[in-house]
Amino acid sequence: MSFANHDEPFDVVTTIEKLRTWYYPATVGELSRVMVTQKMVQDDIADHDEKLDQLHTSYDGDLERLLMKRDCLSSSRQGLIHYAEKLSGLLSPIRRVPNEILCQIFLYCCTENDMTNGKPGEALTLSSVCTRFREVAISSPALWSNLTALFPAAEHYDYRNRQQETKLSSLIQLYLDRSKDRPLTLDLNIEERYHLPNRPSLQLLTREFNRWKHLVLRGYSFSTDPLCPSRDCLPSPSLESLEFRYGVVNYVLDLTNNWKSLTHLRYPTTLKLDNFWRALELCTNLHSLTVQALKSSSRILPTLSSLAVINCEFDKLDDSLECIISSLTTPNLSELVLEQRNEGAVEYPRQSFHHINGFFERSQLCSLTSLVIQGLYISDRDMVALLLQVSSLETLSIHDPAFPDLLRSSNPISKSFIESLHAGRQSAFRPSVEPLLPKLRELTLKVTAQGFDPSSFVDTIASRWLPDQSSARELGLVCLRSVELHLPGTVDTKPYELLRQFDEAGLRVVVKYRGVDGYIV
């Protein structure tokens, strides 16, 4: 072995051999030689340590430079990625969309402009995306003409809410300015029962009542407050649609103003029948009416084309619906919804056929194209009898009652009912060879009772799938285009597999049982 400071080799093997014995330097020369060699070794160790330190210092510097270079490259790479994304953005297909189409897309997004709970509204959000979005949004007053606002109750009107009121006022003013002179669609939730404080935000809206076109009022009685939509504001001369939700609004019916502009009305559930007739007398051009739970002389509504009657009283099932249906005659009706929201079990449910049948007979519904019957206790035979009176029907939706076991004989969707819809065969309920509902295009059935017969359903759907127009004309039928079947619980999927061929051929088919993944077809 050689050392750093000299060329004289050191005999390591001999030294190791001597260590294995009891050898000790016998002479002064040998002792001196060992001590000199030992010092030389220590010097070489120190020399090696110094060189290692220098090497470490050099490596640390190189490593730091390499790490810095790595970080620099990584940062540059990330910048290139972001730049590539920006270049891709320049090639984005949306940049080729004309402003007119982009504005239509924005209109679908801004149907509410929800300002509740401090939200800015969709129009303001869209206008903050980029310069182009902002230019399109600001140049489109229609985007800013829909407003949804909440006005909290007085007992909660503290300092924090006053700050929110200031923010809401600024926001409403911005929307009113940008909507220019466009008609307004308002959804106002006023959480006050007796008195509202001086609300600048509400004043801003009432000052623009001449622009109101569609109005939804939610809350309690607010006729005593001069700032709320009341005698001075209703009806707006351009108001076409008016909905009352939850509130007691008898004051509206005391007005003598002209309501001829109103074509759509949703009526509250708390008013007496006399007030209901008063409302109808004021609305001489009414086309659409939705009422709930009224408590009867008959009224003829010749202009009404859409009627929805929704009963939410669970203790006296169908009482309110019967009162309304028994009191109306609508010869030009095209859309009808009869709904019983059976959210609670009823001990003694009542059948609904007789008053509905009387309504059908009085109104002579030769223009009815859409019918929804949901949750009513009507037998399958009676349901067929009703449908025989509406041969113009194109869309039919029937929902079994929520509690089918209460009156087993009053569930409309049965095997016999399905067979009555068959295009080419007679049935127990339809002895005539003429098909039931010859113009039917869309059918929706929601079954709650167990034991639904799949074979009769598949057979009936197959009989109404007539894509060949000449064959359809010969049979006096219109080809069925859409069918939905909702079943309770888990079912055997195999009988419904035959419907896939119709779905692939162009008929929209949905067969589903309860559950997120319950689709069969």
From TrEMBL:
Residues 95-147 form the F-box domain. InterPro entries: F-box-like_dom_sf, F-box_dom, LRR_dom_sf. This is F-box domain-containing protein. It comes from Rhodocollybia butyracea.
